[in-house]
Design the sequence.
């Protein structure tokens, strides 16, 4: 079909063709977040506890999973934690201080719950017995190579080792380390129904970013709530 001349692109101003003075709307991510259920989170923690019994590397893998599920930190944020950033006692409340993050908004303090705080205390004892430094600027997760911080790829491998023990989860390979963060945010929202709180603890730049990223997860929660109405 021939397009009338008045609708031709030749009639569009040069500013419009160059994209000038056009309001740009945010791009929404329509890919659903793969978020572990409450039962799957329990199975992952159980597998991490089993992994803990398998020597020094297993203990480090366990600590990584416990921190990820209880703080919602990004993989890179966990990898760059120093000992002074993980405070389990001696402060107003146990917490993790994220000094280096993806964006300026990522700098934040995330409280540690009782289980995570106890795990951190236990891990510090292991580090001391291993002869690892515990000074403020020492890496919390110390790499075996040249006494450096862990990198993202090492934590991916650590999570895969834990997943290999998740025999009760169907298709565990669909999860990745970032699923720990998703599990934290989903569980926190389910407990509080406070999207602003979830956004702040995740270190997002705005509440809109959180709503956009977890739109499918939050929608599912609403559907489940309505289904239970009057039942």
Sequence:
């Amino acid at each position: 079909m021939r397009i009338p001349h008045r609708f031709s692109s030749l009639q569009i101003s040069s500013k419009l063709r160059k994209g000038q003075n056009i309001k740009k709307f945010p791009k929404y991510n329509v890919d659903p977040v793969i978020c572990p259920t409450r039962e799957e989170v329990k199975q992952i923690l159980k597998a991490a506890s089993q992994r803990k019994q398998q020597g020094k590397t297993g203990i480090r893998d366990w600590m990584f999973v416990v921190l990820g599920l209880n703080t919602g930190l990004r993989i890179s944020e966990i990898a760059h934690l120093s000992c002074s950033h993980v405070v389990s006692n001696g402060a107003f409340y146990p917490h993790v201080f994220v000094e280096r993050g993806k964006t300026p908004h990522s700098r934040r303090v995330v409280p540690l719950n009782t289980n995570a705080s106890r795990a951190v205390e236990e891990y510090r004892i292991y580090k001391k017995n291993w002869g690892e430094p515990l000074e403020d600027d020492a890496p919390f997760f110390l790499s075996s190579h040249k006494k450096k911080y862990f990198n993202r790829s090492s934590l991916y491998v650590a999570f895969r080792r834990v997943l290999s023990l998740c025999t009760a989860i169907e298709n565990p390979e669909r999860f990745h380390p970032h699923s720990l963060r998703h599990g934290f945010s989903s569980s926190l929202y389910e407990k509080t129904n406070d999207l602003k709180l979830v956004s702040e603890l995740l270190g997002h730049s705005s509440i809109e970013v959180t709503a956009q990223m977890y739109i499918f997860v939050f929608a599912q929660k609403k559907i489940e709530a309505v289904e239970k109405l009057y039942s």
